[in-house]
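In the current project phase, the collection of sequences with tokenised folds has grown. One resulting record follows, to show the layout:
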Amino acid sequence: MKIAYTMAHGRGELDLLLAELAKRLEARGVATRGIVQTNSECENDHRCDMDVQILPDGDVIRISQHLGKEARGCRLDPNAMAHAVTQVARSMEAPYDVFMLNKFGKQEADGQGFRDLIAEAAASGATVIAGTNPLNSEKFEQFADGMATEVAPDIDALLAWYDKVNAA
């Protein structure tokens, strides 16, 4: 199986990295599916809104909800996330080479979210590239059953890994 994950530590760095990776792969003619995240700053507080782009050129869906300035809980909108999962599942009906996930997060670690689509993509022989964070990286490794490779959060490193695992 061709499964990789990467982690970046600066705010929004992982999102920018994976969006750029998707763009570069698509420019090479690689068919991508999944989601990448874009963040936009909120005017009233310092937290960003979370939007995901359905790959390769689908809808942009806001997956965060505004809970108020003092809220400390998870801002993920479960209904919007379910809608994104449905949209990606539909897109996977067409042939593709790579499945990308902006973040293997709490939902996936708990067996929900994009978890089944990641498994479907890997089982189909597609290359899988996911972002994660230290909190969920162990759960991702367990989910991948030891078959995932951690790749440095660097565009050149990710492209080199992709080229290596997809060499004919």
Remarks:
- The first strand starts at residue 3 and ends at 6.
- The beta strands are 3-6, 32-41, 48-55, 60-62, 98-101, 127-131, 148-150.
- The chain has a mean pLDDT of 90.
- The first helix runs from residue 13 to 27.
